[in-house]
Amino acid sequence: EGFLLGKVGSHVKDTISDSQINNVKVETNIFVYQFCTFVKPDSFHNKQCQISIDKMQAAVPSGYQLVGWYHTRRNASPRMSLREKNIHRNLLALQPTGNEDNFLFLMFNMYHSDNLSTHTVNYNFYQFNSNYNRYVRVPAVVCNLGDTTHTEYRNNETSTVNTETGVFASIVARHEYVICSTCI
Protein backbone atom coordinates (compact mmCIF):
# COMPACT_ATOMS: atom_id res chain seq x y z
CA GLU A 1 0.00 0.00 0.00
CA GLY A 2 1.02 3.56 -0.53
CA PHE A 3 0.19 6.96 -1.93
CA LEU A 4 0.42 8.29 -5.49
CA LEU A 5 1.93 11.76 -5.74
CA GLY A 6 1.66 14.11 -8.70
CA LYS A 7 -0.55 16.84 -10.05
CA VAL A 8 -3.90 17.39 -11.74
CA GLY A 9 -3.91 19.44 -14.93
CA SER A 10 -6.86 20.69 -16.95
CA HIS A 11 -7.01 22.35 -20.31
CA VAL A 12 -9.78 23.54 -22.59
CA LYS A 13 -10.06 21.96 -26.02
CA ASP A 14 -11.98 24.15 -28.45
CA THR A 15 -13.03 22.71 -31.81
CA ILE A 16 -14.89 24.60 -34.49
CA SER A 17 -16.93 22.79 -37.12
CA ASP A 18 -19.49 23.69 -39.78
CA SER A 19 -22.41 22.26 -37.81
CA GLN A 20 -21.53 23.90 -34.51
CA ILE A 21 -19.89 27.25 -34.13
CA ASN A 22 -18.06 26.42 -30.93
CA ASN A 23 -17.54 23.11 -29.17
CA VAL A 24 -15.65 23.50 -25.89
CA LYS A 25 -14.48 20.47 -23.94
CA VAL A 26 -12.50 20.55 -20.70
CA GLU A 27 -10.02 17.67 -20.43
CA THR A 28 -8.51 16.77 -17.07
CA ASN A 29 -5.29 14.78 -16.85
CA ILE A 30 -3.89 13.29 -13.67
CA PHE A 31 -0.12 12.98 -13.73
CA VAL A 32 1.54 10.53 -11.33
CA TYR A 33 5.19 11.44 -10.74
CA GLN A 34 6.12 9.51 -7.63
CA PHE A 35 4.81 7.04 -5.09
CA CYS A 36 5.18 6.73 -1.34
CA THR A 37 5.28 3.15 -0.07
CA PHE A 38 4.38 2.00 3.43
CA VAL A 39 6.40 -0.93 4.74
CA LYS A 40 3.63 -2.44 6.84
CA PRO A 41 0.08 -3.02 5.63
CA ASP A 42 -2.57 -0.86 7.28
CA SER A 43 0.03 1.84 7.98
CA PHE A 44 -2.16 4.86 7.23
CA HIS A 45 -5.48 3.34 8.31
CA ASN A 46 -6.79 0.97 10.94
CA LYS A 47 -8.77 -2.27 10.53
CA GLN A 48 -12.02 -0.28 10.34
CA CYS A 49 -10.59 1.65 7.34
CA GLN A 50 -10.40 4.94 9.25
CA ILE A 51 -7.57 7.12 8.00
CA SER A 52 -4.89 8.44 10.34
CA ILE A 53 -4.53 12.08 9.26
CA ASP A 54 -1.20 12.48 11.08
CA LYS A 55 0.37 9.49 9.31
CA MET A 56 -1.06 10.61 5.98
CA GLN A 57 0.34 14.15 6.29
CA ALA A 58 3.70 12.86 7.51
CA ALA A 59 4.00 10.54 4.51
CA VAL A 60 3.32 13.19 1.85
CA PRO A 61 6.36 15.46 1.41
CA SER A 62 5.85 19.20 1.09
CA GLY A 63 5.51 20.36 -2.49
CA TYR A 64 3.64 17.25 -3.55
CA GLN A 65 -0.04 16.75 -4.20
CA LEU A 66 -1.75 13.53 -3.17
CA VAL A 67 -3.53 12.28 -6.31
CA GLY A 68 -4.36 8.73 -5.20
CA TRP A 69 -3.32 5.57 -3.46
CA TYR A 70 -2.45 2.03 -4.49
CA HIS A 71 -2.76 -1.52 -3.20
CA THR A 72 -1.16 -4.78 -4.32
CA ARG A 73 -2.82 -8.21 -4.27
CA ARG A 74 -1.75 -11.67 -5.38
CA ASN A 75 -3.90 -14.06 -7.42
CA ALA A 76 -7.06 -12.04 -6.84
CA SER A 77 -9.91 -10.62 -8.85
CA PRO A 78 -9.23 -7.28 -10.56
CA ARG A 79 -12.32 -5.77 -8.91
CA MET A 80 -12.20 -3.51 -5.88
CA SER A 81 -12.96 -5.16 -2.56
CA LEU A 82 -15.33 -3.68 0.01
CA ARG A 83 -12.34 -2.82 2.21
CA GLU A 84 -10.63 -0.93 -0.63
CA LYS A 85 -13.84 0.94 -1.40
CA ASN A 86 -14.15 2.01 2.25
CA ILE A 87 -10.54 3.19 2.39
CA HIS A 88 -11.01 5.11 -0.85
CA ARG A 89 -14.23 6.70 0.39
CA ASN A 90 -12.51 7.81 3.62
CA LEU A 91 -9.55 9.22 1.69
CA LEU A 92 -11.98 11.09 -0.58
CA ALA A 93 -13.55 12.73 2.46
CA LEU A 94 -10.14 14.19 3.37
CA GLN A 95 -9.50 15.67 -0.09
CA PRO A 96 -9.96 19.40 -0.75
CA THR A 97 -13.37 20.39 -2.08
CA GLY A 98 -13.57 19.99 -5.84
CA ASN A 99 -10.70 17.49 -5.99
CA GLU A 100 -12.77 14.39 -5.16
CA ASP A 101 -13.40 13.46 -8.80
CA ASN A 102 -9.67 13.46 -9.57
CA PHE A 103 -8.55 11.04 -6.85
CA LEU A 104 -7.29 7.67 -8.13
CA PHE A 105 -7.00 4.14 -6.84
CA LEU A 106 -4.36 1.94 -8.49
CA MET A 107 -4.69 -1.81 -8.02
CA PHE A 108 -1.86 -4.21 -8.85
CA ASN A 109 -2.73 -7.89 -9.32
CA MET A 110 0.13 -10.37 -9.53
CA TYR A 111 -0.19 -13.83 -11.04
CA HIS A 112 2.28 -16.61 -11.75
CA SER A 113 2.20 -19.79 -13.77
CA ASP A 114 2.05 -23.21 -12.12
CA ASN A 115 5.77 -23.84 -12.56
CA LEU A 116 6.62 -20.25 -11.46
CA SER A 117 8.33 -19.55 -14.79
CA THR A 118 6.10 -16.63 -15.76
CA HIS A 119 5.03 -13.79 -13.52
CA THR A 120 2.40 -11.32 -14.67
CA VAL A 121 1.46 -7.99 -13.11
CA ASN A 122 -1.80 -6.38 -14.17
CA TYR A 123 -2.83 -2.92 -13.07
CA ASN A 124 -6.04 -0.92 -13.15
CA PHE A 125 -6.76 2.68 -12.24
CA TYR A 126 -10.13 3.36 -10.64
CA GLN A 127 -11.93 6.61 -9.96
CA PHE A 128 -15.15 7.26 -8.06
CA ASN A 129 -17.84 8.69 -10.33
CA SER A 130 -20.16 10.72 -8.12
CA ASN A 131 -22.79 11.04 -10.88
CA TYR A 132 -23.34 7.28 -11.02
CA ASN A 133 -22.23 6.55 -7.44
CA ARG A 134 -19.83 3.81 -8.54
CA TYR A 135 -16.18 3.16 -9.32
CA VAL A 136 -15.11 3.26 -12.95
CA ARG A 137 -11.86 2.27 -14.62
CA VAL A 138 -9.66 5.06 -15.89
CA PRO A 139 -7.39 4.49 -18.90
CA ALA A 140 -3.68 4.87 -18.23
CA VAL A 141 -1.43 6.59 -20.76
CA VAL A 142 2.32 6.22 -20.38
CA CYS A 143 4.18 9.21 -21.84
CA ASN A 144 7.27 8.92 -24.05
CA LEU A 145 6.84 5.28 -24.99
CA GLY A 146 6.54 5.07 -28.73
CA ASP A 147 7.74 6.44 -32.02
CA THR A 148 7.03 10.17 -31.99
CA THR A 149 8.19 10.71 -35.58
CA HIS A 150 5.00 9.29 -37.06
CA THR A 151 2.44 10.84 -34.76
CA GLU A 152 0.40 13.94 -35.22
CA TYR A 153 1.15 17.27 -33.60
CA ARG A 154 -0.06 17.42 -30.00
CA ASN A 155 -1.06 20.78 -28.62
CA ASN A 156 -2.34 19.58 -25.26
CA GLU A 157 -0.44 19.68 -22.01
CA THR A 158 2.23 17.03 -21.83
CA SER A 159 3.94 16.70 -18.52
CA THR A 160 6.57 14.02 -18.48
CA VAL A 161 9.04 15.30 -15.89
CA ASN A 162 8.31 17.48 -12.91
CA THR A 163 11.44 19.60 -12.49
CA GLU A 164 10.47 21.27 -9.21
CA THR A 165 10.22 18.12 -7.08
CA GLY A 166 11.45 14.56 -7.12
CA VAL A 167 14.73 12.98 -8.12
CA PHE A 168 15.64 15.58 -10.75
CA ALA A 169 15.29 18.48 -8.29
CA SER A 170 17.31 16.66 -5.62
CA ILE A 171 20.18 16.01 -8.09
CA VAL A 172 20.23 19.64 -9.22
CA ALA A 173 20.17 20.86 -5.61
CA ARG A 174 23.15 18.65 -4.63
CA HIS A 175 25.51 20.03 -7.27
CA GLU A 176 27.03 23.45 -7.65
CA TYR A 177 27.05 24.85 -11.17
CA VAL A 178 29.70 27.33 -12.29
CA ILE A 179 29.07 29.55 -15.27
CA CYS A 180 32.30 30.41 -17.04
CA SER A 181 32.34 33.65 -19.03
CA THR A 182 34.91 32.27 -21.49
CA CYS A 183 32.90 29.15 -22.24
CA ILE A 184 30.61 29.02 -25.22
Automatic annotation (TrEMBL):
GO molecular function terms listed in the Swiss-Prot or TrEMBL record: microtubule binding; polyubiquitin modification-dependent protein binding
GO cellular component: nucleus
Database matches in Gene3D superfamilies: Cytidine Deaminase, domain 2
InterPro entries: FAM175 (IPR023238)
One record GO biological process: attachment of spindle microtubules to kinetochore
Name of this protein: MPN domain-containing protein
Record organism: Pinctada imbricata (Atlantic pearl-oyster)
